[in-house]
């Protein structure tokens, strides 16, 4: 490395080793000496210039290259050779002059003058609209006086069990969601919007609402600990009891007395005034 | 004669062989070091995610044999692929294109780098939380609520860096990629904020579930499809040095994807406990999803017209094109199932699992490869370690991810139709064993899906080997160096891209 290299590196803000190698490459390209190049970069003279590159064919320029009444922005990402810019080819009357870059290539990565911050504002506005209509709207509680409720009064153990149900990922395979469709016949009463069960969105395993009406604590315990194809959850005995309590207390409806059942058209519903089956 | 651009007023550095990465680490191109770090970390997380997803597919079919339940394994796979790979890698792609499109230095490279480290650390912590049973069980991540706070903070970093860089831009004309980038970095933290809000104590089960679906669908549409597609516009134009076919079509793609953001997520709960009107609205507005995907795919196809034969040695471009068309397939499947009549069969089944898998492990991985395979040689000064690996990646990903999608879609249809026929409804009476008997037909398809998952995993390994191999054993090639003006106090004023020859 020389003093020239150091001076050029300082002037360009680039590591000296890099500058030296760049100068060598430039010198080889232009036929000048390395010192001449370094001197120029350090601010001491003219930079040697290589022969001009050929201009690209004009048919490569498409609509991104709009008429440019003033100096067009450069294709700032296209690799520049170390040639000086070549003047654009003369254009015939009526023909749109395609902007060119310093490298003589079309400004393929430059679009039109617009305000990207405007895009940001539009994106935020669009998101808010979708959020309000697509999430807040349908999730608002629909209070209907006298209607039944599926907001179940879980016991303390069941609430702990619900936490376990969530943490071990039961909802990845099981729903607690009965829909008014043929596929869900026999599952129980249709789930209402005020449900406080873990709804889930996949049913790789059976639906687990109303489970207490069709199975027992011991059966649930056996499945959770690895009966059949079900993975063993390896829960402590207290946690297992809590989880079983949650599943047994999970019903589409609360008890008749709690929920003031007024009758329903839903398929498979518990008859009005009748206590759901208990394990 | 048109005057030369102001960007050319500075004499370029000339041919530069820059395989000496130690020098580069100290040079002005440290923004590209951040880019490399994001791609490398993303590649590592992809291999981890692929392994988790494979185990999840295994546990879906052989639940009794799997040491970890599908519920936890799927959450772990989602955390790793969505946050560890897709957020990380697409953020790297954003940091790659920003200085090149704005003409200014990336704002706060140190913050961007810290964001990468923080995201990596958080992903590991998230995985531990799920494994240890500390999670909250909400899909897709199953995280405890308190871990959402630091994640939200980390996700705002790309937004800050991008917006501040764009504010300081020297280039007054925007290439279309910039729209997608700005939209993506804006939407991502907003989406996560909505997801986080689902954990608030006063939020009902229904709102919580809608919030989960809103996030999952929004992540795919507003982040993977939008940012991935937008970055690929840059790749195509830059790699082949051909102009974009239509700026207007890109605008259609961008705004359609933004509009489609959440609808197909809501549609997964068709006939659920929400109001009936949302089912119809979701079906109608969800059509924007395939429109956006198709607009981008057709725009790229038009751009490539007459240049297809040049793709043989450009595996990144091939990856992106395949990703865009797989994206059209995913979008059509999602939109189709959003109609209530179809949703009554497909809702809650493996059909939607197929769409999520295809979007994340198919479209997402391919679109990331579309930018990574192009960017890595330019920022590292080393060529792709071989052309065979990325080609294998493309082949295995298409076969594997496509096969998993087809298998799961079919499994979902089989389950859905058998439920409608009533066979599985009887199985509910005997919860557990009865379910397996009722869903026997789809079990075979889940096994097939696992087999294709193995092939997809090979593709993911090939991607990681390509990215990591580029910086470790790749042949030295010309490197793109961004050189800025010296007046850092007022931002940079000049960018000169120099590409030299191999020594």
Salient structural properties:
heterodimer; A: 279 residues; mainly alpha; Cytochrome Bc1 Complex, Chain D, domain 2; 1% strand; disordered C terminus; B: 503 residues; Cytochrome C Oxidase, Chain A; two-stranded antiparallel sheet; 3 strands; globular
How would you describe this protein?
The complex is a heterodimer of chains A (279) and B (503). With 279 residues, chain A is mainly alpha-helical. Chain A has helices at residues 3-12, 16-30, 34-41, 116-139, 156-167, 217-224, 237-249, 256-259; one strand at 112-113. Among the domains of chain A are: 1-51 and 76-82, no CATH class; 156-259, Cytochrome Bc1 Complex, Chain D, domain 2. Chain A is 34% helix and 1% strand. Chain A is built from eight helices and one strand. Chain A starts with a helix and ends in a 20-residue tail after the last helix. By secondary structure, chain B is an all-alpha fold. Chain B has 18 helices and three strands. In chain B, strands 2-3 form a two-stranded antiparallel sheet. In chain B, helix 2 runs parallel beside helix 4 and helix 3 (70-102) runs parallel beside helix 14. Classes of the chains: A mainly alpha (279), B mainly alpha (503). At the A-B interface, helix 2, helix 3, strand 1, helix 4 and helix 5 of A face helix 3, helix 5, strand 1, helix 6 and helix 7 of B. Strand 1 (112-113) of chain A pairs antiparallel with strand 1 (173-174) of chain B, so a sheet runs across the interface.
